[in-house]
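Hi L., both proteins are below.
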Amino acid sequence: MHPKQPPPPIVGIRTATWARFTHDIYRGVLQYRRLHQAWQIQTPIDSTHELEPVNINRFWKGDGIIVFRFTSAELRAWQSRHTAVVSISSESEQHGIPIVIPDFVESGRIVARHFVSLGLREFAYWGDQSRAYSRARGRGFEEVLGEAGFECLQLGVEVKRLGKLADRWKTMRRFIDPQLRSVPKPIGILAKDDIAAATIIASCQRLGFRVPDDVAVAGVNNDELFCYTTSPPLTAVRYPGEAIGYQAAARLDQLMQGDTKTPLKTIVPVGGLVARESTDILHIADPIVAAAVRRIRREAGTDPLQVNELVADSPLSRAAFKRRFINALGYPPKAEIKRVRLAHLEECLRATDWPIKRIASHMGFDSMEDLGRFMRRETGITATAFRTQHRSAT
């Protein structure tokens, strides 16, 4: 007779109910579960009362929990029962428990590079200085703009100033409308998240500003409910939900196994930019440079364009063409070709399961070795390493 096996650990998951991208977090946790541990998963689910409700609060009992935000009373109660806790919110860092979060700083950098490539010269960040994730995104945004020689206006409001939950949208209008009226235009505005970006777009419509012609807007998280219900649809940085879920599960497993070396902070690479109509502009006054940039963005992903080809399409010498390109964008045409090709390569590695050889052929590299050299030269890592970093099974 076989000895009775102990029941599998009970793991709770409580995420931000307002965020549709958190479904990806569940997928990441379940992927870890399939590969490593046979956990019992408990989570609050709206089943229209057809399933027994699960309440994950300070009275909940389990072996481990992955949680977005929590109260101090909840944390004390869980820890008193020796429940392992991992948070997926940057606001939990002060509690001394492991957190797993996206690379907030890189989110800001990605949008700054995108805005500069559009030929914009005025920029603003709509943030909330009371939130760590917002400060980090704004810091990355401002750093890249500063390196390019631009300044960044600071806009926004702290959430604690918005008052009652039911009236927040009214209070937000009182803050956002005067700030938008006062900024120079055209301007590129990065919002701290997709909800704030959607609010900015709605305000622009109310005030009569054109998006993206007067105000180009980008958000963070790529929550499609917000990105596609704005008009025009919203450009956003992807939230790496599956990787967050997988890494949070890995940290939780370490804690439940008694590993005393579990890292307190795990930063997950973000998933790149999804460009939509809210930033579909090209503010380049020089018509020759504008035409060259449009060609680069149309063709360079799958065709290794050469600067000589662009010069041949213009009435300028190579030196004059390069000089005017730098005057318009702040960097030479070869850098724009590389930027577009690298962005396309990274998207292929993130979004497809194509072998490296197929991606190389698709992009016009002579061989997969040429692709590898390009990737290492531009990023310092291999294509395979990049793909691994941006997937959950790491």
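That was the first. Here is the second:
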Amino acid sequence: MCAAGDLPESAAGGHGGTDPAFSALLEDSAEDLYDNAPCGYVSTLLDGTIAKINATLLRWLGRDRDAVVGRMSFPDLLTVGGRMYYETHFAPLLHMQGELGGVALELKAADGTRLPVLLTSTVKTGADGQAQLIRISVFDARDRRRYEQELLRAREQAERERDRVQQLARTLQQTLLPPALPAVPGMDVAAYYHPASLDQVGGDFYDLFPLSGDTWGFFLGDVSGKGENAAVVTSLIRYTLRGAAVYDPDPTSVLGHLNTVLYQAYQGEFPRFCTVVYGSIRLDGDGAVMTLAGGGHTPALIFRAGGTSSLLHLHGGQLVGALPQARFVAGEVRLGPGDAVLLYTDGLTEARTGVDAWYSEEDLREDLAGLAPATASAVIGAVSELLDRLGDGVEDDTALLALSVRPPEGRGT
């Protein structure tokens, strides 16, 4: 409250009081503030009959004061749905709690239009604590409604755009992987792709294809980076590996040819390289001989029919495409009836299992030890379940490819 010295000279009385004209101005301003406030005010009797209403709310509703005060109840100003909510929820809660705020309803104007509002209400009590009146403040929520509708439209548009991006990513990803693995006589084969993100195309890849005679070529790898640039490199790698294998099926020669292509094509502002394992497999008697060459890739996991498992490390193999003359290391493994091999990318073995803990190749071998002996489909099924258990810890895409030699009784083509 202002002191007399803070008032205008014309308003200060000569005897320390307040000028009557200024008092009248204050009183008039208070009434004007109520009647022409930026929000609506309405007071009702306990049965809802309107006892007082300000000009602001009357203007919003397009109604005359004489037609409202004492003649209408507040629920009469609401839409049908709003009236039901008022009578079943708003009024009972208000009588129980004595106040209620932030309730969104709609008022019905005289011309039938709807006015979205927010209501805040309190119960006025007398000296004896008995309820006398209900006071309601009405806030125009049209701007808020428009804002919410714009937000909703923006969200729906963003969701449609995200769905479109995800569909494009899925479609592009499918073009980078074989639609189905071919049937290999005497063997079972299976593959799986686990995307870490639905919005981006990953750089993991695999393939299986026939070579001459009873020999089959296969590969699995991971391109650096993600998105459309990685997809372009992945496509180049797939076709290069297939073409190189036809020209010279020796695994180290195939990787050497790929290294030359990648190094020459992607040196500059955006260098690209990959880790990859390329191999060939051919049936030999009741088993198969597999030759693998590795370029900085994770070790293959071998399952033996006798119940053991081991990691096949190809130490010394270098990244493909990073150096003009990279070194690649090959190894040969004989698979007997009931044996299986699993190839995988490092999205699996670099999954986070704690704050400073990651899944490893040894963890994988231990978790799958109970599978041996196993078929290719059983191995892929077990690893896909493992990826699901690791959940959000899998932060990179994971590609899986498994091959197994059928026992003699199941060697149909």
